């Protein structure tokens, strides 16, 4: 990366120093509605074939500079796109005709070039700037749930994760999120945190979603799909915009804590000078009280389901932490420690601070250089293997881009700083180890606390403690809990703060200061070739890891990982655009894995202007995340070991170990022989052949092949209909497996089990490893999604879509397949009118999905039921033209039904808000 940046800077300087040969002419005018003759604001005016453009203001006025003669392209959702020839400097009056243009939008993401959404070679969804403004959800990102094929999971008020086409999770490393071409994932986490670090609504121009594999154009992260968000260009969207939103949640949540306020403040300012230089600044701040995870269901797997519940001495309650520590006591049964509720451990006062600045300079009317910097900071809860608090997490990005009409070169950096985040479950367990007293009344050290607590419980239960009722579990627990520090006390807060700052196995804190550097570019040869469209591009990326040795083996080391990819896409239309064929291919190489080629082929058949049939074959792959490759965490009885070969060098875990199942059988049989009086060497010899040498391959990429057919059409110029069917086959899913390693070779030269190794496995020389690897099992999914958008008279608009998806395990071992975690059916209905009157509008959205079982590492992959639910969002808006202000009153989940979207995550209720949007002030 460092080698490439100086060259890029030199090129940019040369461009800056050169003088444009042609002279620019000022072009201005006003945009009106052809019927009402009222001025139209927000219309896009662009010079065809160039980067030059503008947006009309509240009076319909625009101005820009361009060489003449020129062709202006004027467009706005709800109006027919119009082209106007300009011969010289003049003031124009342009009338736009209302139409159903919104049903035939232009998209970019599907093919990395502009094309009609009707002729896209693959399924694609789009949310434009008007849909962003009119969404009834609390923000545009929450409103994405109304797109077909998309699933959304809430872990926190400030963090929602999205996914498409199955294998859903709360931290989705199979799905790519781009913002202005920049990957929005913190590299240490390995997945994007929803929109915690993304743009605010007031700066979003459009959002495009590709459901399903997109690796052929976008690389390994786009295994399950991608979301591409574009922000507003400061040349086109100028002036001051601001939003003040005040809301309330936690109404009637059953906790007795009362309703809580939420506020979201944002400001954007953009200005252009002489159509050559422009800048924009964005600042936003959201604060509120997070949704509570307060499900106290007993999920202890060692207690029969009929005996679980609040009276179970061994209960393990879902959102209480510390009670996972349990023992089976002789003549008593299973007993768990008393835990702490999540609300006493988590940071429920969450916030999101976002700021960005961008500088744009037009070297010529076809060449632009952009520098952008983003600084984001926030707090959210995340449901992973535990409940984590992503606390005061800082995320910074820098981007430098040179963009022409047919190419771009882009370099960016992502840097994360997490010094105050922590594991909530570990925090509860560690606090529990600070106050335990022995039977003499002395506080013991943390390493003895759990054993001492159970000793106290057993003594009290068995009647060895005066004043404690014999064989009464409640009295025994009360005695064992004597001295327990209580939430809200200064002692509890001091222990909590200390343990959050303590990292590693003795604390709860998490450190991550990882980063990535990325360089990419693309060139479109289409204008030069004329007879065919050809795009060629590539990228280089390098990760820099720093967790201080708390997660990776990176303490006092420069641990890095690099990868690169190149792609090409060829497309051509035949028979006057009746048939369009597209071929794409990409080759990616990570330093730890074999190179991977992912092709894509598609055909779009358009017998008429309004009817389009498509068929496609797509492939995708996913490289292991940084954590999958490099985690090296010794948690006492077992070492969690990432699957990159370099990460396990010298440990001999993959090469010289036995399967955990065979070790269990060997140890059990050995123990039985010893009980019979068999001498140790003979007991080993009798049973050693039960051991099976493991054959765990190093981790490699997951793969998918997908076949899709679809149709998009305009019927009677009022109804857009879209339907697709897909079938996908997956293999090489990444899994974990446990092995036991010995120091001596497992096998002798003749292939028999080595008695010395078998003996070592029974003693202190045994080491257990949890290894990252792949399963050879194959599974498939198939699904259908369909949607219609109907433009009704008098500006009413109706949208309906439905998605059906089916998972086929085939003959695969369920333990080798990641959790599908996806409802079989879901439906969305939207209905609204942005112009019910001149200044009044409304929008309503209803979402329903079926019940399903959620499997997650938070519950050790034991299923928890996510019930079927529906959500109703609604908003009404009133425009005050004289103040350039829109007042919006609305709510998400207005029926206030508390629903859980992932087992173990919080219950989400209604959020009600009122907002004031000031737009294009001082323009």
TrEMBL record:
A GO molecular-function descriptor: siderophore uptake transmembrane transporter activity
Domain TonB-dependent receptor-like beta-barrel: 375-893
GO cellular component, one term: cell outer membrane
Location(s), subcellular: Cell outer membrane
Membrane topology of this protein: Multi-pass membrane protein
InterPro entries: Beta-barrel_TonB, Beta-barrel_TonB_sf, CarboxyPept-like_regulatory, Plug_dom, Plug_dom_sf, TonB-dep_rcpt-like
Domain of life: Bacteria
Pfam families found in the cross-reference section: CarbopepD_reg_2 (PF13715), Plug (PF07715), TonB_dep_Rec_b-barrel (PF00593)
Gene3D superfamilies (alphabetical): Carboxypeptidase-like, regulatory domain, TonB-dependent receptor, beta-barrel domain, TonB-dependent receptor, plug domain
Domain TonB-dependent receptor plug residue range list: 119-225
Keywords: Cell outer membrane, Membrane, Receptor, Signal, TonB box, Transmembrane, Transmembrane beta strand, Transport
Coiled coil: none
Family: Belongs to the TonB-dependent receptor family.
Protein known as: TonB-dependent receptor
């Amino acid at each position: 990366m460092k080698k490439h940046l100086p060259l890029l800077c030199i090129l940019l300087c040369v461009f800056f120093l050169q003088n444009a040969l042609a002279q620019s002419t000022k072009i201005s005018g006003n945009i009106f509605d052809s019927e009402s003759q009222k001025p139209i604001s927000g219309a896009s005016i662009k010079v065809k074939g160039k980067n030059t453009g503008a947006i009309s203001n509240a009076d319909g006025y625009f101005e820009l500079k361009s060489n003449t003669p020129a062709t202006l392209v004027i467009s706005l959702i709800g109006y027919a796109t119009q082209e106007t020839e300009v011969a010289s400097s003049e003031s124009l009056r342009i009338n736009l005709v209302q139409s159903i243009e919104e049903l035939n939008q232009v998209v970019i993401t599907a093919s990395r070039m502009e094309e009609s959404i009707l002729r896209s070679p693959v399924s694609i969804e789009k949310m434009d700037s008007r849909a962003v403004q009119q969404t009834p959800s609390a923000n545009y990102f929450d409103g994405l749930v109304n797109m077909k094929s998309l699933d959304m999971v809430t872990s926190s008020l400030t963090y929602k994760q999205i996914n498409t086409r199955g294998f859903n999770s709360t931290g989705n490393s199979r799905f790519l999120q781009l913002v202005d071409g920049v990957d929005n994932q913190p590299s240490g986490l390995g997945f994007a945190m929803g929109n915690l670090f993304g743009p605010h609504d007031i700066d979003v121009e459009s959002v495009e979603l590709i459901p399903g594999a997109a690796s052929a154009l976008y690389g390994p992260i786009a295994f399950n799909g991608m979301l591409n968000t574009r922000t507003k260009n400061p040349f086109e969207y100028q002036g001051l915009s601001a939003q003040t939103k005040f809301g309330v949640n936690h109404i009637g949540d059953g906790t007795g804590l009362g309703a809580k306020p939420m506020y979201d403040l944002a400001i954007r300012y953009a200005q252009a000078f002489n159509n050559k230089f422009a800048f924009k600044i964005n600042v936003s701040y959201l604060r509120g009280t997070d949704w509570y995870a307060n499900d106290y269901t007993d999920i202890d797997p060692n207690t029969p389901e009929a005996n679980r519940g609040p009276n179970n001495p061994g209960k393990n309650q879902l959102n209480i932490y510390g009670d996972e520590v349990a023992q089976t006591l002789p003549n008593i049964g299973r007993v768990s420690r008393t835990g702490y509720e999540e609300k006493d451990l988590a940071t429920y006062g969450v916030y999101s601070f976002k700021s960005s600045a961008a500088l744009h300079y037009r070297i010529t009317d076809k060449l632009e250089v952009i520098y952008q910097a983003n600084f984001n900071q926030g707090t959210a809860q995340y449901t992973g293997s535990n409940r984590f608090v992503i606390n005061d997490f800082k995320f910074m990005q820098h981007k430098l881009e040179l963009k022409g009409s047919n190419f771009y070169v882009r370099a960016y950096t992502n840097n994360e700083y997490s010094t105050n985040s922590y594991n909530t479950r570990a925090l509860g367990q560690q606090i529990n180890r600070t106050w335990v007293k022995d039977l003499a009344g002395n506080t013991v050290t943390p390493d003895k606390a759990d054993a001492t607590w159970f000793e106290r419980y057993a003594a009290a239960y068995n009647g060895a403690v005066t004043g404690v009722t014999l064989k009464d579990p409640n009295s025994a627990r009360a005695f064992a809990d004597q001295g327990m520090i209580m939430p809200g006390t200064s002692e509890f807060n001091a222990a909590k703060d200390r343990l959050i700052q303590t990292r590693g196995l003795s604390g709860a804190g998490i450190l991550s200061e990882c980063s990535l550097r990325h360089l990419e570019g693309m060139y479109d040869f289409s204008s030069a070739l004329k007879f065919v469209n050809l795009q060629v591009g590539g990228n280089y990326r390098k990760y820099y890891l720093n967790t201080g040795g708390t997660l990776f083996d990176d303490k006092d080391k420069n641990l890095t990982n690099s990868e690169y990819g190149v792609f090409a896409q060829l497309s051509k239309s035949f028979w006057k655009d009746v048939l369009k064929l597209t071929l794409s291919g990409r080759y990616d190489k990570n330093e730890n894995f074999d190179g991977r080629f992912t092709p894509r082929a598609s055909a779009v058949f358009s017998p008429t202007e309004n009817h389009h049939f498509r068929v496609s074959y797509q492939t995708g792959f996913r490289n292991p995340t940084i954590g999958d490759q490099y985690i090296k965490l010794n948690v006492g009885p077992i070492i969690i070991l990432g699957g990159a070969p370099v990460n396990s060098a010298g440990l001999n875990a993959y090469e010289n170990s036995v399967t955990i199942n065979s070790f269990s059988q060997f140890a059990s049989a050995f123990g039985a022989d010893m009980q019979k009086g068999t001498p140790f060497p003979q007991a080993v010899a009798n049973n050693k052949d039960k051991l099976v040498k493991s054959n765990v391959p190093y981790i490699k990429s997951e793969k998918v092949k997908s076949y899709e057919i679809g149709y998009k059409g305009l019927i009677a110029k009022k109804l857009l209909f879209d339907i697709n069917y897909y079938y996908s086959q997956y293999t090489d899913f990444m899994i974990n497996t446990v092995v036991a390693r010995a120091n001596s070779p497992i096998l002798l030269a003749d292939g028999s089990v080595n008695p010395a190794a078998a003996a070592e496995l029974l003693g202190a020389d045994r080491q257990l490893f949890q290894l990252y690897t792949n399963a050879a099992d194959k599974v498939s999914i198939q699904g259908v999604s369909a949607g219609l958008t109907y433009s009704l008279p008098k500006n009413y608009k109706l949208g309906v879509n439905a998605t059906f998806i089916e998972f086929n395990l085939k003959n695969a071992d369920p333990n080798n397949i990641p959790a599908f975690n996806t409802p079989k059916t879901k439906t969305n209905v939207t209905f609204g009118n942005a112009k019910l009157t001149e200044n009044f509008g409304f929008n309503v959205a209803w979402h329903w999905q079926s019940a399903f079982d959620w499997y997650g590492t938070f519950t050790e992959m034991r299923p928890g039921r996510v019930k079927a639910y529906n959500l109703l969002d609604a908003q009404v808006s009133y425009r005050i033209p004289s103040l350039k202000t829109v007042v919006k009153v609305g709510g998400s989940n207005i029926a206030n039904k508390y629903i859980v979207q992932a087992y173990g995550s919080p219950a989400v209720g209604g959020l009600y808000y009122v907002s004031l949007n000031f737009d294009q002030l001082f323009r």
